Structure formats: C-alpha cells, structure tokens
Amino acid sequence: MKVAIVSNHAKKSKEVAAELMRLLANAQIPINQEQPTVVITVGGDGTLLSAFHKYHHLIDDVRFIGVHTGHLGFYTDWRDYELGLLVSSLQEDQGQSVSYPLLDVQLTFNDGTASEVQTVLNEATIRNTVRTMVAKVAIKDDCFEMYRGDGLSVSTPTGSTAYSKSLGGAVVHPRVNALQLNEIASINNRVYRSLGSPMIIAPDEWITIELKQDDHYQLHLDHYVRQYRNLCSLKLALSQKRIHFVSYRHTHFWSRVNDAFIGTVKDDD
C-alpha cells in the first residue's frame, strides 16, 4: 500500500493532513504522492473531486478515502477526529472497496477533429454564454429533440445530489448504472418545444448534443470550466471505468441524502 494525501487550503484541513501524515509514518505506511494505491482527501467533496482529476490516470489501480473537516459530504466517510481509527483500518486493509459509475465526454470540433475522452465524476454541463443555446439532442444516434434554452447537463448517479438536483433532477442511488440528462431553463411554447423533464439514460445508450457552430460555449466538467468557439458536438456515455472507494465502513446512501437535505424527521402524530 502506498498513500497519497490531498488537502484543501483551509487551516483546519492542513492541520489534519499534517497529523495524518505523522500517524501514517508511525504506522510505517509509505507516502507516495506520485504513484499511490490509496488516496486520502482532507476537506470536503470539492477536495475529492480535485483528487479524482489529479489521479484519474490511475483510476483502475487506486482507491479513495475522504476525511471531511466541515459538513458531511457525499464522498467523505471519516471525520477529522477519527484519524487513529482510519490508520488502524489501513493497517488491516484487505483491498475492500465499493465502486461508482463515471461519465465519459468526447468533444468534436468544427474541423472534424475529436478530443480525447475526458472522464468526470459528477457532471458535464454545456451552455451558450451569449444567447439562447440551440442544440439537437440524440439518444443512441436517433434524434430525440431540438432543444432551446440556457444549456444542458448530464450527471452520474453520485452527481445527482449536486448540480443536477438544483435543476430538478431525480436523486439516483449510485448503484444504478445510468446517466441523467437535465435541461436548463428550456424554452417551451407553441413554436419551440422540448421534453422539459429529467431523462434517465440506460447504460447501453449514449447522448449526442449537436451545437450551432461558431458560437460561444462554456463547458463545465465537474468543477473545471472551459470556453470554446469551435465546438461542434459532444458525445456523453457511461464510462467503462469506475471510481473505487475504500469500504472499511460505508455510510448508507439514503442516510447521506437525509443528513444533507432533510435532517431529523419528527413524528407529527
């Protein structure tokens, strides 16, 4: 086992990361920031997103652990005061893990060239930054609708509790191998019409978004933002790769959802 530590810049997170480093050294667990087999993040879900993109090239060989130093996150199972228990669990590690789906995104440009496939953990969102976005949406290469509105967002099951939820999307259990397509402020009237509802896409299907060329587009891949003038289309599909989390203990998904969005439920009778 080789461990890498990724921390955000908050004072508390840096202190926790330093203590974790000390405990790992005492336990003679090697630190390797370049070729780890376990990545421990200290912070919140944003820190884990950053770590995923940093080590995505090792995705088949690395497992993730999240230590949260603030509010409970969907990717962080451990609290900052449980470092001793975490290190003891690492010493007894037997390779146990749980895996979740990822999203592959491929861009095609006006000159016909295609980008390398880019893999995201939460969602990919495309917007027109200067005017109403016009796009043809196809499912498995069959035209489904002509969309007009602010943009389109495709999320993974774990991403369904993030931006997708704020768009009115369904919360999807991460064991469901599916993607979700959400429209952003779509135009629906007697002239222009699209579905206007979230769509759950099966694992053997893919989404193609064909864009009006030579326009201004903003693409969000998780928390990274890119600007394009020469973007022609996007192909989005469930990735063959998956992210793996160490499962010494794993908080029930619906318990996470309740804690994040609802809280304690009182019996009104």
Automatic annotation (TrEMBL):
Gene: nadK
Function text: Involved in the regulation of the intracellular balance of NAD and NADP, and is a key enzyme in the biosynthesis of NADP. Catalyzes specifically the phosphorylation on 2'-hydroxyl of the adenosine moiety of NAD to yield NADP.
Gene3D superfamilies: Probable inorganic polyphosphate/atp-NAD kinase, domain 1 (3.40.50.10330), Probable inorganic polyphosphate/atp-NAD kinase, domain 2 (2.60.200.30)
PANTHER family: NAD KINASE
Family per similarity comment: Belongs to the NAD kinase family.
Nucleotide-binding keyword on record: yes
Protein name: NAD kinase
Cellular compartments annotated: Cytoplasm
